[in-house]
Amino acid sequence: MKSAIRLLVFALILMIAATALLYTQQRRLIFPAPSQYPQAPPPGFRLVHTQTGDGLRLSAFHRPAQPGQRTILFFHGNGDNLLGAIEATRGLAANGNGLMLVEYRGYGGNPGSPGEAGLYRDGDAAIRWLSAQRIAARDVIIVGNSIGSGPATEMALRHDVAALMLVSGFSSLPDVVGEAMPFVPRWLVRDRFDNVGKLARVKVPVFLMHGDGDTLVRPANLARLRRARPDATVALVAGVGHELAYSAAAQAIFADWVNALTDRPLRSGD
């Protein structure tokens, strides 16, 4: 009996220690910022800097829109950087759309540490920068890939933008963690990114795109987002996984949907 009690106590202590470790170190797993990142923008882009509400100066890449085209505000995935953002938006750039590629705090040589509240501040700073360039929020199409779906949805909720597109987006971060690691209590996930709870309150057109082979953010996330926003345009792309944003299929779908929106007059002069 005593041996069984000791074993139970040891298992309990081990579980508490593992829970504490996971709680304190989870952001290292959720935000694995690449150690290598571009030092200078590629042709057509310029390096710009935004100022966050909590005092951080963040780098970003900007490419101006051609006349009559809207600007894409792009939030990349958690393991990506501005180079990947350029690749994911190449089809949109080819159509003459403007691009504002956000780089998060703690990424790409930026100061600070990433987290849900911080990424929202980073998004707000990017929109303020665009406004200072006389690019109104309502002439901006927000695109979020993977974890970028979190700040993208929040920005579409806070600002009067033109539209919102989520690529490989999740219903919430606890949903993703719960599907990948069912043994982890959902309350343990510190950053929530509750997209499914916000989407119904977003007042602009919404586009949801997912790969049916995505094993990281499973297609069940798309189903939950779709239920939250029944009027959304939805594309489930066959034979593609979590790399969807970089695929030729995604580029064509991106461009077609954005072109349809761009056919509507810009509202800056309203």
TrEMBL record:
Key words, A-Z: Hydrolase
Superkingdom of source: Bacteria
GO molecular function annotation: hydrolase activity
Gene3D superfamilies reported for this sequence: alpha/beta hydrolase
InterPro entries noted in UniProt: AB_hydrolase_1 (IPR000073), AB_hydrolase_fold (IPR029058)
Pfam families: Abhydrolase_1
Residues of the AB hydrolase-1 domain: 71-195
Protein name as annotated: Alpha/beta hydrolase
Organism name: Sphingopyxis bauzanensis
